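Quick one: structure tokens for this chain, please?
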Amino acid sequence: MSCDVVVIGGGIVGTATALALSEQVKDCRLVVVEKEATLAAHQTGNNSGVIHSGLYYRPGSLKAKNCVEGRNALYAFCAEHGIAHEQCGKVVVATSAEELPALDELERRGYDNGLNGLERLDGDGIRRREPHVKGVAGLLVPETGIVDYVQVVNAYARLIKERGGSIRLSCAVQRVERHGHGFVLHTSQGPIEAAFVINCAGLHCDRVALMCGTQPRMQIVPFRGEYYTLAERCRSKVKHLIYPVPDAKFPFLGVHYTRMINGEVEAGPNAVLAFKREGYQRSSFSLRDTLETLTYPGFLTLARRFWRVGLHEYHRSFSKAQFVRDLQKMMPDLAAEDIVRGGAGVRAQAVGEDGALLDDFKILDEPGLIHVLNAPSPAATASLSIGRTIAEKAAAHFALTRL
């Protein structure tokens, strides 16, 4: 089989990129390959479905730009294609005076990133919005919403196929060779020749980059986020999404309450090192994945810096009582019997060789190749914008090669 472009990865970034390519490059022979039997099987299909506003991200960063543009585009896309969604808003809660400077910074970033309708709340204002939540100050962020991202990906896929693109499931890439001015991808379904390759492999993006002869200078370290679910009788306690003020040292947002489009309310997640890249259970283990993590100098540096935080996260993973205590910081009347253990997701966290947690999106552009090497949250929210950005880079390649 031969084509113009192969997109590796059938998550939301890969399908959004393919969708944008189908719009931007006329008569593009396009193939999306996904190793699983379904699209959106990993990060996309195991998150809580938040449409982020763009509040947290450094102004001018790729995250800030793409999140704001992508959020508006996603709301419009869902409305056009009949995908259930809700712009329910979010309240960020400071539970102590020590958190007020960080809340001030979030508010500044929100205004710098062009968010509309931000409202600073005092303790009484929080209680008017969220009667069961206690805090010294808060920030209402009305542009935050919720959606089922699997439905979004399926809509992207339908449009890709309507425009002549192909999606091949259960098609794992095993080896990549340069061949003349293009590539041969050896897959579980046979070879695919392509002029251009786009790596959107998520949890395996660093490995795919190495297959292609690219040194990514980072490694994916998987972190599992575990959730509890509020009992049905308690769901009405949560009117918006309810988030703490995050610790700026980490790319994680802390345990929070998330209304979901199916009516459930999630509480969490924590963030523990996963011993398998697709390890959704505490018992999940891969010798290869574990050895890669534990022998990676960047991870060892990271672990030396933050081992106390890591121990607390593991304690919370095994202790429901500790999980409840952390959740009670914002909602004091929550009881252990109000929550039941829910699902989990795995975050593909890129860690640099120096031990730095890569915070911004990282997209590496090489001749004939584009690698998406770090696309954590808010990548789902930003997918249409990220997809357009990547497709523009690929389209420029085709404009040059067709001269």
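The chain has three domains: 1-86+145-217+361-403, 90-142, 218-352.
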